[in-house]
Amino acid sequence: MRKIAVLLFLTIFGLAGCAPEDQPPRIVYDYETKAPPTSLPTTKPTVSLPSTGPVPSSWMPSHTERAWSAIIIHHSATDEGNATIIDKWHRENNGWNGIGYDFVIGNGTNSGDGEIEPTYRWREQLTGAHAGGTPGNWANEEGIGICLIGDFNRSVPSKRQMESLTKLVRFLQQRYRIPKSRIYGHREVPGGHDTDCPGKRFSMNRFRANLSN
Ligand SMILES: [Zn+2]
Q1: Class of the 63-209 domain?
Q2: Neighbours of ion ligand 1 (CB under 5 A)
Q3: What is the pLDDT of residues 48-99, one digit of tens each?
Q4: Domain boundaries, the chain
Q5: What are phi and psi of 63, to 5 degrees?
Q6: I want to staple 139 with a disulfide (CB 3.0 to 4.6 A). Which of 29, 78, 131, 146 is the partner?
Q7: How far is the CA of 181 from the centre of ligand 1 (A)?
Q8: How far is the CA of 62 from the centre of ligand 1 (A)?
Q9: Residue 32 pLDDT level (bands cut at 50, 70, 90)
């Protein structure tokens, strides 16, 4: 009976012209067997974020993009530095293939104040090496690592560094549909190693307050 009622409903409304032609085809459940429809697209929860406008082309990856689900903020714990210096440091001291982060934001010492340097890990969309110890290494697999030059146990980021960080994070949030709840300071990463990174004087709550969603 219910199936007939549904068909009758659709017929009446179809004839009355209440179903515009540009709407996707209606999916009709089989009420007799309660079988789920087979043609429904899989939906994942998404967040709606405002567009950030144009960004530098260097921010765009040159390889197939990973399914990033988090953003992780670090400090270099040094007064000076840039992507090249950290790259050398991670190769020589850690034996890695190169810098572990996806982006570095300078403080005016070895790169511009607020200058954003995307690294080879970002361009090639490789697994990161910046937030170890998590189950399944999820934070390096799915988390975008951003490092600000500075030791924020002793000082605070510059105004330009924070402006650049905010712009970059907004862009990444929008592109990968990353909600604010998935933007972590390194020390906050669920299941991660014990650390005070990105420094005791870097307030993640204050930073997140400037972000959408
Ligand atoms: Zn860190």
Answers
A1: alpha beta
A2: 74, 186, 197
A3: 666 777 899 999 998 999 999 999 999 999 999 999 999 999 999 999 999 9
A4: 1-40, 63-209
A5: -120, 170
A6: 131
A7: 18
A8: 25
A9: very low
